[in-house]
Amino acid sequence: MRKEFKIGLAGIGALLILFFGINYLKGISMFKPESYYNVEFENINGLSLSSPVFANGYQIGIVRDISYNYKNPGHVVVGIEVEENLRIPQGSQAELVTEMLGTVKMNMKLNHEATVYVTPGDTIKGVANSGILGAAEENLLPQIEKMLPKLDSILTSVNALLGDPALKKTLHNAEQLTASLNATSNDLHLLMSKDIPQLTSNVNAITENLKGISENLKDVDYASTFVKIDSTLQNVRLLTDKLNRKDNSLGLLLNDEALYNNLNATTANAASLLKDLQEHPKRYVHFSLFGRKDK
């Protein structure tokens, strides 16, 4: 009897642990007093049992029961349990919100301006808020449906464009252009890394030379140099004046036409005499071992 009693107590304890454990996992507090309310919706958007109920972002209870209202077709009654200390003002609403992942939660929108409260067990009005997904479905999907024919036309045009041989030729030309740009880039890199530094070095050397020349020119006595140049030009002018006058030998030689003709005639006679001397030397020079013979 003791053994069977112990086994029975162990079984009852296991059932109690299982019962409380399941309720705990569901979020049901067995030892905390709670109030029960009904919320009526036209569409619960997939709300499930044990879904949390929030007020101002704080969980105040859970969904305990969901049933179809056969007395008022088209409506669903959701039973919720909330903390006993929470008093729900009249005019409050329960809102269903669909989240990004598709889960549905209930938000209690409390009317804090009211001074009369809902009695536990009464029915609260429920509204649906489809959230971002609902807004996308209501606003974005119609726009997408309008765009589908245009998208189909665009895809047809794109396919025609991709099948055009001119596009392949253009891509080939673009590839060749890219290769040319790469070659140009390599040449430019070589120019920047080799020729430009050398040119810069030469420019620097030229600059240094010009600097040296500038330093040398700075030491030149320009006034004395210009005086000497003026003196030289004066002498050249005097020489030119003398050459243009006939009161000197060089002037006569350059300006007297008769003297010039005489010199030409004398030169011509001298040339003729030399030529005759070369051709007939015996006319001018005679040698004899026995004396001169009269002619």
UniProtKB/TrEMBL annotation:
Record keywords: Membrane, Transmembrane, Transmembrane helix
Segments traversing the membrane: 7-25
Keyword Membrane: yes
PANTHER family: INTERMEMBRANE PHOSPHOLIPID TRANSPORT SYSTEM BINDING PROTEIN MLAD, INTERMEMBRANE PHOSPHOLIPID TRANSPORT SYSTEM BINDING PROTEIN MLAD-RELATED
Organism listed in the record: Bacteroides gallinaceum
Residues annotated as domain Mce/MlaD: 35-99
Protein name, entry field: MlaD family protein
Pfam families assigned to the protein according to its UniProt record, in alphabetical order: MlaD (PF02470)
InterPro entries found in the cross-reference section: Mce/MlaD, MlaD_Phospholipid_Transporter
